[in-house]
Amino acid sequence: NAGVIQTPRHKVTGKGQEATLWCEPISGHSAVFWYRQTIVQGLEFLTYFRNQAPIDDSGMPKERFSAQMPNQSHSTLKIQSTQPQDSAVYLCASSFSAETLYFGSGTRLTVL
Amino acid sequence: AQSVTQPDARVTVSEGASLQLRCKYSYSGTPYLFWYVQYPRQGLQLLLKYYSGDPVVQGVNGFEAEFIKSNSSFHLRKASVHWSDSAVYFCAVSANSNNRIFFGDGTQLVVKP
């Protein structure tokens, strides 16, 4: 069991470019969560899927951010027209339900 | 909605000393409570969790936490800290097993040798 896999580990984009972050949950886990972590804001909930269906996206900025889970083996977080304030560590976690979350090591996004 | 307050942004203790990291939650029902730890450049890892039963729960590496409903608290304790315990500790709450988990802002623990 390799745990939750997030790729890439680091991504640098220019302002206005698109960034796609990937998450491979633990096999058999039915829930996938996305969080954003910054020094200033701490750990912010973004969105949550259960059995591939979006359950709660209340934390997602309505513009530029979107998340999908096309199959049970991966989820993506896409940020269009990236801005410097999007710079953060993006954490993905998976779970059997929403009990114990198993986190990946995160993707550090830097927007220049 | 649920929320979590960790009043101490940073706690410094000497190696071998006892530790308490404070956590208070806001939720009208009986919560699911968690403590997670984050080491540098890693994701969060579960230390312990409480759903019901004995209000004192044991976790990994000698950590324990006590659920006190009357105080809406779930403080984390350890009898004797080690330098390797230096990390950021997050308290979290959920309404039930199918709801999202709300995290506190975290407490950075620094263990001095």
Structure description:
The complex is a heterodimer of chains A (112) and B (113). Chain A has strands at residues 5-7, 10-13, 19-24, 31-38, 42-50, 53-56, 65-71, 74-79, 88-95, 102-103, 107-111. With 112 residues, chain A is an all-beta fold. The mean pLDDT of chain A is 93. Chain B is an all-beta fold. Chain B is 0% helix and 51% strand. Chain B has strands spanning 3-5, 10-14, 19-21, 24-26, 32-38, 44-50, 56-58, 64-68, 73-78, 87-94, 102-103, 107-112. In chain B, the strands form 3 sheets. In chain B, strands 2, 5, 6, 10, 11 and 12 form a 6-stranded mixed sheet that branches. In chain B, strands 3-9-8-7 form a 4-stranded antiparallel sheet, with no helix packed on it. Chain B has a two-stranded antiparallel sheet with strand order 1-4. In chain B, a hairpin with a 5-residue loop joins strand 5 and strand 6. Chain A binds chain B through residues 4, 33, 35, 42-43, 45, 48, 50, 55-56, 91, 93, 97-106, and chain B through 32, 34, 36, 41-46, 49, 90, 94, 96-106.
State the secondary-structure class of chain B: mainly beta
Sheet-strand content of chain B, in percent, reads over 45%
Q: By helix and strand content of chain A, what is the structural category?
A: mainly beta
Helix proportion range of chain B:
under 10%
CATH superfamily of chain B: Immunoglobulins
Measured between the Cα atoms of the first and last residue of chain A, the distance is 35 Å
H/E order of the elements of chain A? EEEEEEEEEEE
Order of helices and strands of chain B: EEEEEEEEEEEE
Number of helices in the DSSP assignment of chain A:
0
Radius of gyration of chain A: 13 Å
Quick description:
Chain A has 112 residues and is mainly beta. Chain A is 0% helix and 55% strand.
SSE arrangement:
The complex is a heterodimer of chains A (112) and B (113).
Chain A: E1 5-7, E2 10-13, E3 19-24, E4 31-38, E5 42-50, E6 53-56, E7 65-71, E8 74-79, E9 88-95, E10 102-103, E11 107-111
Parallel strand pairs in A: 2-11
Antiparallel strand pairs in A: 1-3, 3-8, 4-5, 4-9, 5-6, 7-8, 9-10, 9-11
Chain B: E1 3-5, E2 10-14, E3 19-21, E4 24-26, E5 32-38, E6 44-50, E7 56-58, E8 64-68, E9 73-78, E10 87-94, E11 102-103, E12 107-112
